[in-house]
Design brief:
The complex is a heterotrimer of chains A (about 80), B (about 240) and C (about 725).
Chain A: E1 2-11, H1 18-29, E2 42-49, H2 53-68, E3 74-82
Antiparallel strand pairs in A: 1-2, 1-3
Chain B: E1 5-10, H1 17-28, E2 31-36, E3 48-51, H2 73-81, E4 86-89, H3 91-99, E5 105-108, E6 115-123, E7 139-146, E8 148-152, H4 155-163, E9 167-172, E10 191-195, E11 201-204, H5 222-237
Parallel strand pairs in B: 1-2, 1-3, 3-4, 4-11
Antiparallel strand pairs in B: 5-8, 6-7, 6-9, 9-10, 10-11
Helix pairs in contact in B: 1-5
Chain C: H1 12-22, H2 28-37, H3 40-43, H4 48-51, E1 61-63, E2 70-75, E3 78-86, H5 88-93, H6 95-111, E4 116-126, H7 132-152, E5 156-163, E6 172-182, E7 197-202, H8 212-215, H9 236-251, E8 257-260, H10 265-277, E9 280-284, H11 296-301, E10 307-312, H12 317-326, E11 330-338, E12 342-347, E13 350-356, H13 357-362, H14 390-402, H15 410-413, E14 424-426, E15 433-437, E16 442-450, H16 452-457, H17 459-477, E17 479-489, H18 496-515, E18 520-526, E19 530-531, E20 534-535, E21 539-548, E22 565-569, H19 580-585, H20 598-613, E23 619-622, H21 627-639, E24 642-645, H22 654-658, E25 665-669, H23 674-681, E26 686-693, E27 697-699, E28 702-703, H24 707-710
Parallel strand pairs in C: 4-5, 9-12, 17-18, 24-27
Antiparallel strand pairs in C: 1-2, 2-3, 3-6, 4-6, 7-10, 7-11, 8-10, 9-11, 12-13, 14-15, 15-16, 16-21, 17-21, 19-20, 22-25, 22-26, 23-25, 24-26, 27-28
Helix pairs in contact in C: 6-7, 6-9, 7-9, 9-12, 17-18, 17-20, 20-23
The chains are: A alpha+beta (about 80), B alpha/beta (about 240), C alpha+beta (about 725).
Chain lengths: ~80, ~240, ~725
C-alpha cells in the first residue's frame, strides 16, 4: 500500500542559521516584535510503497540517513501515515 | 618521462569542468579526461582526480549531496585510499565533505549573497602534493564564486583540525593578515581549503583554474597544477 | 456559443480578418491561439513597419533580424550570436522568477542558432532606492539573475543599471546573451522539410505562463497579485543540461532546424518553423509529456521553461534519444513536418486546430497608431550657466558621485559569477566588458546603454546619443563595432504622444546605425510599460558588440600611471540637457538636449582607434554620465592616482565640468607618448588639461576628492 512520509529538515542546534536569522530580523522590522527566533529548514514529502507503516517509516529513516539529511548540520523528523489521495 | 594524467569528474550541472581542463593543459601541458559521473571506473593511469566547481544536480537538496551518491564516487574513494591526489574545487569541495573524504560541511555565506570576486589566501602548508611549488606564508590572489562557502565543523573538531595542521589555505589581506575582515564568506579562522590527515585529498573554495593566465588577471593558481604534476612525476619515477 | 474574440485579445477588425482569411469562424482553441500569436508581444504589429526602417546589412553581418538571434563574423570561421530580450512584465509581478526566466529565455534563443552561450549582460531600469517596494523588486531581480545565470554556468560580464521613479512599479529587465558558433554550423529555423519529425526536448509541459505573451502586451493591472499564476518558474539546472544536450546533438549533425519555446510555447516555435520553411506542421497534443492534465489550447500555449523544439530526420531519432536520456531530459516526438502549409494540432486523433502556419505567426495585420508630437517643450532662451567656484564644484561632484545612478555597482555584480568559462578579460565595473574567444584568439567587446532622461528630452537625439554612448567606449578601448541589438522599452503606443516618441527614437537609432555603419542584427520590443500610477520614460536600450584589435591589448579606463599628462579630446563644453548635473544638482532647470553630428562621431572613432593602435595612451575613458569631473574622479578612485587640473585651460562652467553628450574623452598619456598622442588627434579638439599627481583631484589648488568623497567608492578592493 501507499504511504506518505513527511520529513522536516532543519538546522542543528549550534549551527548558525544565517537564513533564519535574516528572516527573524525582517519579521521584527515589519512589526512582529514578539518573534524570538526563526529557523529555516525544508519540508520533503515522499510517496512510497510499503507493506506496513513501520516498514514505510524505516525506509523513510534510511532515506534521511543516506541522502536527505546531513546530520553534521541538520536535524530531522519523520512522520508517516497512509496516503489518502 | 611519465606525465600526470588528470580525470575531471563531470556531474550534471558541473560548469567548471572545461575551465579546469584548459588551465591544466595551459600550465602543465598534460592530458585531462572528462569523466562522466555515471562511469564506474577512472581512466587507466589517472594520477589526479578533480571534482570541479558548478552546481551539480542544481545544488538542490544540499550542495554536493546528490553528486556524492554518483556511480563514479566509489572509484574516487578507491583512488584516494591508494594515496593518489584528489582535489575538490568549490562545489567539488562540498562533494568531498558529503562523501566523507573531508570533514565538515559548507554553509551559506554570512552575507546570504553569492560572492564572485578576487580574494587573497595565504598558503599554510607547502608539504602537500598540491602546494610544493608555493612557499609557506605566500599570499595568492585568486577568485572565489560561491553562495555556500562558510566552512563548518563543531568547535571541538575544528580545534583538532587546526591542531593537526589540516588547513592549507586561509583568507587574508593582500599582506597576508588573517581575520574576519578579510574573510569574505564568514568561514571560521578564515578557512578556505583543508586537507585530509593522509595529505592527499584537498578541498578548497577558491578557483585555481581561474588564476592560471595573466590575461584573466592572475597567475597565482598555476603553481598548484605544477605542484601536483611534480609530485606525481616524482611518484611515478620511484 | 459564439466565442468571444475580445476576451482572447483580438480587436473586431482582427477577428474580421481571421474569419475572412479562414472562410469560417475559428474554433475555441484556434481563437485562443490567434489571440496570443496576434498579441503585440508575438506579432510586433505596432512596430513591424517602424522596425523595417532600421539598417540591418553590414560587412560583418552573417545573420540579421528574423532568426532567434543575429550573428556577426569574428574571423577564422567563427561567429558571435547575440540578442537582447525584455522580461519586464513578469519581473514586475515576480521579480526573482521573472528575471531568472528572462535569462533562461535569451540563453535558449542563442542556443537555437547552434551557438554555445558564452556571456550574459543585463540592462536593469529600477525604481528609486528610497521606495521600499521598488527596492524589494530590485533585490529580487538581481537575485533572480544571479540564481539562474550562475547555476547555468554562463558568466554575467556586464550590463547597465539605472534608477528612476518612473520604474517604481515598472522595472525593466533586459537580458542579453552572446553565443559562439562556427559559421558553417549555424542552425536555422527555415530548413525543415516535409516528413521530418518535431522533437521536444526538456522539461515537461505544465500550465506555466499560459497566455504570458498576451500579458506582456497590456499595461499592468493595479493589483498585480491577480496576474501571478501566469508567471513561469525557471530551472537553471535543466537549462544547463538542455544546453549541453542540444549542443551535443548538433555536433553530431542531427539537427535540421531548432527553435526555443518562449512566448506562446509549442504554437509559436512550431508554426514559425513551418512558416519560415514554407511547410506545414502537425502536432499531436497526446504526445507532449505533461506535468498535469491540460486542455489542448493550454498545451499549445504553455510557456513552461527549458524546452527546445528540434526538427530531425526519422533516422536520427535513436541517437537523439540516447543523448537526451544520458542528459536525463524528457524528450518526445510530438509531430511531423507536412507539406500542406497548415499548423495542425490533434487530440485523440481529432483536429482541434487547423490554421495556415503563415497566418499564425505572420498574419496579424499591422496596426498604425496615431502619432502626434507632445505639446512643444518651452523654447525659452537657455541662459549660459554661471561658472562654479571650487567649493561649489566639489559639492556638485560629491552629490553626483553619491547618487545611485553614478555609484559603483559591485554590490550587484559581485553576486554574478562573471568569471566562469575563464574567458572574462575585462569584467563588470568597467566602461566595456571584454571576453576572449579561445577558438580564434580574439577579444570580443560588449557595451550596453540606456538613457531615458535624454530620450525624454529629445527622442531622436536622445536615442542617437544612447547608441553613441555604447559605441564610444568600444572605440576608446580599441574595438571595432560589428553590430548592435536593442530593446525598445516604451509605454503604450496607443497614446499619440508616446507613439511619436517611439517613432522618433527609432529614427535616432536608425540614423546612427546608418551613419556609423553599425547594423541592427536582432532586437526586441516591449510596449505597455505602465501601470495606473505612471508610465516609464522612453527607454530604448542598445547593446553593441565589437572586435578588439588583436595586435593591441584593450585600452582600459583605469590604469595606474606614475607620471604623464591628462588630455581632454572633444569640445571643451558638453551639454547639460538630461545630464546627471541637470537631474541631480538643478532639477527643474530647463536645459536643452545636445545634437547629433555624425561626421564628428566618425572622426572621433578613427582617432580613438588610432590612439590604441599606436599605443599612444595608457588609459582612456569616454565621457558619459556626470561629465568630465565624474570621469576624472572615477579614474582617480579606481586606479588610485591623482590628477592636478590646469584651470587656465578648463573653464569652470557646469557645461565644461559636468556636461554630457557628444564625442568627448579623457586620456592619460605618459610624457614620452605626448607627441604621438597629439598626432593622433591633430585636427580634432584636444587639450592638455592637467597632469598625473601622487594623489587627489585638484582644480585651482582646491581638492575635489577629499577622503569622505572617495570613501567606499572604489568597490571592494581585496
Amino acid at each position: 500500500m501507499t504511504f506518505l512520509a513527511k520529513i522536516l529538515v532543519f538546522p542543528r542546534e549550534g549551527v548558525l542559521d544565517t537564513q533564519g536569522k535574516a528572516v527573524g530580523k525582517s519579521l521584527n522590522r515589519i512589526g512582529f516584535g514578539s518573534v524570538k527566533e526563526v529557523k529555516v529548514g525544508k519540508y520533503i514529502q515522499v510517496l512510497l510503497e510499503a507493506v506496513t507503516e513501520a516498514d514505510a517509516a524505516a525506509a523513510a529513516e534510511s532515506m534521511c540517513g543516506e541522502l536527505l539529511v546531513n546530520d553534521l548540520i541538520e536535524d530531522h523528523t519523520v512522520q508517516v501515515g497512509p496516503w489518502k489521495p | 618521462m611519465e606525465t600526470m594524467r588528470t580525470s575531471v569528474i563531470v556531474f550534471p550541472g558541473s560548469n567548471c569542468d572545461r575551465d579546469v581542463m584548459h588551465a591544466i593543459s595551459a600550465s602543465t601541458g598534460t592530458m585531462t579526461d572528462l569523466v562522466w559521473h555515471e562511469h564506474r571506473t577512472l581512466p587507466r593511469d589517472t594520477g589526479l582526480v578533480i571534482l570541479p566547481g558548478g552546481f551539480s544536480y542544481g545544488d538542490y537538496l544540499r550542495c554536493g549531496a546528490m553528486a556524492a551518491k554518483s556511480p563514479i564516487i566509489d572509484a574516487v574513494i578507491k583512488h584516494a585510499s591508494s594515496g593518489l591526489p584528489v582535489l575538490g574545487i568549490c562545489n567539488g569541495f562540498q562533494v568531498l565533505t558529503e562523501i566523507g573524504l573531508l570533514p565538515g560541511a559548507l554553509l551559506a555565506n554570512t552575507s546570504l549573497d553569492f560572492i564572485c570576486d578576487f580574494c587573497h589566501v595565504r598558503v599554510e602548508r607547502e608539504d602537500t602534493p598540491f602546494t610544493g611549488h608555493y612557499r609557506k606564508g605566500e599570499v595568492l590572489r585568486i577568485p572565489i564564486a560561491h553562495y555556500e562557502g562558510r566552512f563548518y565543523l563543531p568547535e571541538e573538531q575544528l580545534r583538532t583540525l587546526e591542531e593537526e595542521g589540516l588547513v592549507v589555505f586561509r583568507y587574508c589581506s593582500p599582506e597576508g593578515v588573517t581575520g574576519e575582515d578579510f574573510t569574505p564568506n564568514g568561514s571560521p579562522n578564515g578557512i578556505a581549503g583543508i586537507i585530509n590527515r593522509k595529505g592527499n585529498v584537498l578541498g578548497m573554495m577558491p578557483h585555481p583554474e581561474r588564476a592560471t593566465e595573466s590575461l584573466l588577471g592572475s597567475l597565482d593558481g598555476a603553481p598548484l597544477w605544477g605542484s601536483v604534476n611534480s609530485w606525481i612525476r616524482g611518484r611515478l619515477g620511484e | 456559443m459564439r466565442p468571444d474574440h475580445r476576451a482572447a485579445g483580438l480587436s473586431d477588425a482582427e477577428y474580421g480578418e481571421i474569419v475572412r482569411a479562414l472562410g469560417r469562424e475559428p474554433e475555441h482553441a484556434e481563437l485562443m491561439i490567434l489571440g496570443v500569436m496576434w498579441s503585440e508581444h508575438c506579432s510586433y504589429k505596432s512596430t513591424r513597419r517602424l522596425l523595417s526602417t532600421l539598417p540591418t546589412n553590414g560587412e560583418a553581418v552573417v545573420q540579421g533580424p528574423g532568426e532567434n538571434a543575429g550573428i556577426v563574423d569574428i574571423g577564422e570561421g567563427w561567429g558571435i550570436a547575440f540578442k537582447v530580450e525584455s522580461h519586464n512584465h513578469p519581473s514586475a509581478v515576480a521579480p526573482y522568477q521573472g528575471a531568472a526566466t528572462g535569462v533562461g529565455g535569451i540563453i535558449r534563443d542563442v542556443l537555437a542558432m547552434g551557438a554555445r552561450p558564452v556571456a550574459l549582460l543585463d540592462g536593469l531600469c529600477l525604481g528609486e532606492k528610497s521606495c521600499p517596494e521598488a527596492d524589494a523588486l530590485a533585490d529580487g531581480i538581481v537575485k533572480g539573475i544571479a540564481g539562474y545565470g550562475n547555476a547555468v554556468g554562463v558568466p554575467t560580464i556586464g550590463g547597465k543599471t539605472l534608477y528612476d521613479r518612473c520604474y517604481n512599479g515598472n522595472p525593466l529587465v533586459n537580458a542579453m546573451c552572446l553565443g559562439l558558433v562556427p559559421i558553417d554550423g549555424i542552425v536555422s529555423s527555415r530548413t525543415a522539410r516535409p516528413g521530418q519529425l518535431a522533437v521536444l526536448i526538456g522539461s515537461r509541459t505544465g500550465r506555466d505562463g499560459i497566455a504570458g505573451a498576451a500579458f506582456a502586451s497590456s499595461g499592468l493591472a493595479d493589483d498585480t497579485r491577480s496576474s501571478r499564476p501566469q508567471v513561469q518558474i525557471g530551472d537553471p539546472f535543466v537549462e544547463k543540461l538542455l544546453v549541453e544536450c542540444c549542443l551535443e546533438i548538433h555536433s553530431k549533425g542531427l539537427i535540421v532546424a531548432m527553435q526555443d519555446m518562449g512566448a506562446a510555447g509549442i504554437t509559436s516555435s512550431s508554426s514559425e518553423i513551418a512558416a519560415k520553411s514554407g511547410t506545414g506542421i502537425r502536432i499531436d497534443a497526446d504526445l507532449v509529456p505533461l506535468r498535469e492534465e491540460m486542455e489542448t489550447w493550454e498545451i499549445a500555449l504553455s510557456e513552461s521553461q527549458e524546452r527546445m523544439l528540434l526538427i530531425a530526420e526519422e533516422g536520427a531519432l535513436e541517437e537523439i534519444g540516447s543523448i537526451a536520456d544520458r542528459w536525463q531530459l524528457d524528450w518526445a516526438v510530438i509531430g511531423k513536418v507536412t507539406d500542406d502549409g497548415l499548423f495542425v494540432m490533434t487530440k485523440g486523433g481529432r483536429e482541434v486546430v487547423s490554421l495556415p502556419a503563415e497566418m499564425v505567426g505572420g498574419g496579424c495585420p499591422p496596426v498604425q497608431w496615431p502619432s502626434c508630437k507632445p505639446s512643444a517643450e518651452a523654447e525659452g532662451q537657455e541662459r549660459p550657466s554661471d561658472p562654479l567656484d571650487p567649493g561649489g564644484t566639489e559639492r556638485c561632484l560629491f552629490t553626483i558621485l553619491e547618487n545611485p545612478n553614478l555609484a559603483e555597482r559591485s554590490r550587484i555584480y559581485r553576486q554574478y559569477d562573471y568569471m566562469v568559462q575563464t574567458n572574462t578579460v575585462v569584467p563588470p565595473g568597467n566602461s566595456v566588458s571584454i571576453f576572449r574567444v579561445r577558438e580564434n584568439r580574439s577579444l570580443v567587446a560588449v557595451t550596453m546603454e540606456v538613457d531615458p532622461w535624454k530620450c525624454s528630452l529629445d527622442p531622436f537625439a536622445g536615442a542617437a546619443e544612447t547608441f553613441l554612448k555604447a559605441l564610444r567606449p568600444l572605440w576608446v578601448s580599441g574595438a571595432n563595432h560589428l553590430g548592435m541589438t536593442n530593446c525598445l522599452n516604451f509605454p503604450s503606443p496607443e497614446d499619440p504622444g508616446n507613439h511619436w516618441i517611439l517613432e522618433r527614437s527609432v529614427s535616432g537609432l536608425a540614423a546612427v546605425a546608418r551613419d556609423l555603419a553599425c547594423p541592427v542584427v536582432s532586437g526586441n520590443v516591449s510596449l505597455y510599460n505602465e501601470n495606473p500610477s505612471g508610465k516609464i520614460l522612453p527607454s530604448p536600450l542598445v547593446a553593441v558588440v565589437g572586435l578588439q584589435d588583436c595586435n593591441n591589448p584593450p585600452l582600459r579606463d583605469r590604469e595606474s600611471i606614475e607620471a604623464g599628462s591628462v588630455f581632454l579630446v572633444g569640445d571643451i563644453k558638453g551639454t547639460l540637457g538630461g545630464s546627471a548635473f541637470s537631474r541631480i544638482i538643478t532639477p527643474g532647470a530647463e536645459h536643452k538636449p545636445g545634437c547629433y553630428d555624425p561626421s564628428k562621431e566618425k572622426d572621433f572613432m578613427k582617432r580613438a582607434l588610432k590612439t590604441v593602435r599606436k599605443e599612444a595612451a595608457s588609459a582612456g575613458r569616454a565621457i558619459a554620465g556626470g561629465g568630465l569631473m565624474t570621469s576624472l574622479a572615477k579614474m582617480c578612485i579606481t586606479a588610485d592616482i591623482g590628477i592636478g587640473l590646469d584651470s587656465t585651460v578648463l573653464d569652470t562652467t557646469p557645461e565644461c565640468l559636468f556636461g554630457e553628450w557628444g564625442p568627448r574623452a579623457v586620456y592619460l598619456v605618459p610624457e614620452r607618448s605626448t607627441e604621438l598622442f597629439l598626432s593622433c588627434w591633430e585636427g580634432f579638439p584636444v587639450r592638455r588639461i592637467g597632469e598625473i599627481t601622487p594623489g587627489g583631484l585638484t582644480l585651482e589648488g582646491h581638492e575635489m576628492l577629499p577622503e569622505e568623497t572617495r570613501a567606499g567608492k572604489a568597490g571592494r578592493k581585496l
